[in-house]
Known about the structure:
The complex is a heterodimer. By secondary structure, chain A is α+β, with helices and mostly antiparallel strands. Chain A has three domains: 14-221, Aldehyde Oxidoreductase, domain 4 (2-Layer Sandwich), CATH 3.30.365.10; 236-305 and 365-440, 2-Layer Sandwich (Aldehyde Oxidoreductase, domain 4), CATH 3.30.365; 321-356 and 452-709, Aldehyde oxidase/xanthine dehydrogenase, molybdopterin binding domain (Aldehyde Oxidoreductase, domain 4), CATH 3.30.365.10. In chain A, 28% of the residues lie in helices and 24% in strands. Chain A contains 18 helices and 29 strands. In chain A, strands 11-12-9-19-16-17-18 form a seven-stranded mixed beta sheet, sandwiched between helices. A six-stranded mixed beta sheet of chain A has the order 14-22-21-20-15-29. In chain A, strands 4-3-2-1-8 form a five-stranded mixed beta sheet, with helices on both faces. In chain A, helix 3 packs parallel to helix 4 (136-163) and helix 14 (514-532) packs parallel to helix 18 (690-702). The radius of gyration of chain A is 27 Å and the shape is globular. Chain A starts with 28 loop residues before the first helix and ends in a 10-residue tail after the last strand. In chain A, 56% of the residues are buried. By secondary structure, chain B is an alpha+beta fold. Chain B has two domains: 3-78, Roll (Ubiquitin-like (UB roll)); 87-158, DNA polymerase, domain 1 (Orthogonal Bundle). Chain B is built from six helices and five strands; from the N terminus they run ββαββαβαααα. Chain B has helices at residues 24-31, 65-68, 87-95, 104-117, 123-129, 140-158, and strands at residues 3-9, 12-18, 50-53, 56-59, 73-74. In chain B, the strands form two sheets. Chain B has a three-stranded antiparallel beta sheet, with helices on one face. Chain B has a two-stranded antiparallel sheet with strand order 1-2. The termini of chain B are far apart. Chains A and B meet through helix 6 and helix 17 of A and helix 1, helix 3, helix 4, helix 5 and helix 6 of B.
Amino acid sequence: MNTTKEKFIAEPERYEFSALPIHQFELQRRDFFKILGAGIAVFLVAKDALAAQETAPGSRSFHNEEPPKEITSWLHVGEDGTVTGFTGKAEMGQNIRTSISQTLADELRVPFEDVRLVMADTSLTPFDAGTFGSRTTPTMTPQFRRVAEAARNLLVGVAAKEWGVAPEGLIAADAKVTDPVSKRSLTYAELARGKTLAQNLPAEDPITPATEWKIAGKPLPKVDGRAFVTGSHNYTSDIRLKGMLYGKVLRPPSFGATLVSCDDSAAKAMSGVVVVRDGDFVGVAAPSAHEAQKALDAIRTQWKEVPQVSSKEIFSYVKNNAEPTSNERFRRQKGSVEEGLASAAERLDAIYNVAYIAHAPLEPRAAVAQFAEGKLTVWTGTQRPFANRDELASVFHMPESNVRVITPDTGAAYGGKHTSDAAVEAARLARAAGKPVKVVWTREEEFTWAYFRPAGVIEVNSGITEDGKLTAWEFHNYHSGSSGIETPYDVANQLTQYHQVPLVLRSGSYRGLAATANHFARETHMDALARLAKLDPLEFRLKNASDARLRAVLEAVTKSFAWPRKKTQVGQGFGLACGSEKGSYVAACAEVAVDRASGGVRVVHVVEAFECGAIVNPDGLRNQVVGAIIQGLGGALFEAMEFENGRIKNPHFATYRVPRFRDVPEIEAILLDRKDIPSAGAGETPIMAIAPAVGNALFDATGVRLNNLPLVPNGLRAV
Amino acid sequence: MAKVMEIEVNGRRCAVSYPPDTPLLYVLRDELGLTGTKYGCGEGQCGACTVLLGGAPRRSCQIPVSAAARKPITTIEGLEKEGKLHPVQQAFLDAGAFQCAYCTSGMVMSIVGLLQTNPNPKLEDIVQFLQGNVCRCGTHPRIIAAVQHAAKMIEEGAR
């Protein structure tokens, strides 16, 4: 096994490659009724899979004994009336446990409190590719509406049969079915009692329009909130099993270093300590964390290091090492950029640079692994429990059916917990120790051995007419990715291209991923073009944007911010930015204050308008939007990984600055509820407009155009 | 070498056997099972491990267990009294002042400490006091609202 080297793989846009594989659903119908008790169950089956089954020779019929293998979500109504939904998605603070429960309660017509969700457990929940790409709300909400509607109809059918009446006239509400003629009613619990009814149905669009939602659409508080304020919720890192050991992994001194020699005799001599050496992997497990650390410290190693690119030279490296052949998959062209530029009254070309940043979730990567009776169970905070299971199965040469991954509600991820590092490490140590092992990464490990949001260089060439219409737009992103790369503005002549570059640091997904970098470059550039056209930045954008939803967020945010504002103080500046990604729209206005003497920069006020279709939970959404603004301020202003000779130079909260209370401006979030548009996800897009809005405000305050993220890691020198 | 010590946690005296320089955090979590106190950085930079030591908020990752043996310790598990949440806990629930909630224990303990010495903190006091607590999800405005709400509840309860 090689835990570090083999996973240095490129993941430029992970969710772009997330075609759903067909996976085995482990539970047989009789098994899940055994586990959950009798009642009523409904399974949602991927549409294509169902069609294939129905046409295939010898295929299983619709009401067969076994659920099909391509189930995407399912629901159980128990004999006590408890409603349990099952989904492979994971809760990491984005509040989907609450919003999905609301949807279920809404469609099934039961009180919110009666619903519980089993999430992200590879033995209990349907396969899921992962919780990323703002996909939970747009996929899970309609799916659970379908299963809940079908379950409701089954319950109505049972009541109709019981009373010998037609189901059409019966009413389902408040967890019971009522006959309005005879005034009889039966609770769902009574109807489910003694039954083992199951139904499969194909995935289709939601049933109840958002205008008729009663529980969904409401600002309900976080499910299990009490467990979090009392400290009783068990995150992965809180799990303790009988006889469990604490594991630590020896890290190389620098990226790419290989082990030359290793003397672990002193560690092995320690009582209760297990040492594992397997290729370049060296790890220990001990009865306590401090004994594990002591054992790790006692291991003497020699490493062969290799030259590495440093953060000082990263942008020229990225630009000079782009793959020479253009990948058509990442190229979009319309009209002729050459002609557009030739016909332009004014031209503006610029280069933008974006640094590597870290996710820094407050709960570091963690896993608890246990081998028992030939089976491996791993609890780990991951966005991809099924991918973790597959990787564990592959690493330990076990059938997937013997590996179970359970993801407790997790202390955040932001795109940073796709991989199975801690899971594999804990399992490797557990196998050697013959006891359960817990591995919790240190903050330094988290800042060093996790993966990063990739750095990038973006080149923009553009032209406008005399009256400020875009004539040409050429946009090249080197390395950071293709999310949100296409302009939402109307340009007849455009070329956008993402250029892959061999990895420098281990890189992967991130909240919004490259859409943040691409929006920064595009919206900074649009601001500069507006100045060139001598137009107000809002006017310039509206002149070039016909997308009604984009215009709506721009109009909402500028109205509330009272754009354009007159400066009342020295050092004051106002900025605007907008964008669209993953089916949702965002626009932000920022006010900054620059102290010209000290170079100190403060973001004073941010107003952001966000629209993601029909809102499922406005309270949870507001939390996500405000959270994205604050997190976005970190990457906008000061977050950057510094590295040299293969070493991260700022792997601590003391040296890697994240936004703290003092950095938080006055924030207003405007949520536009479009009940006529299906709900889109909201985890990512709200982060995208903040960096350009702040950068544009800094230009407004100082006349200095900042084209690099972070904008002001060391403040602005007096200008 | 491990040494047997007695510490008082949430009103109960517990004998623990640890090297005296072991941070209190690990003794609470691994030995006593009080996992509400979180590891966030182990460097005193994030506040996730905050407990009350002799009534004052302290980073338990920076306190050797031997130094904790002389004063009563309160963790997040010790705030709830007879099924009733502490006003700060209630205020977090009422304000929805969490997302992933991993920072919540440390925030709550810090704020309990703040309100004990400053029952009516101004906004600037709150910002200053919580500067060492990281919330990576960006829930800061709601946490501030929760502090103000808790201060009000405590004041009204005291009347």
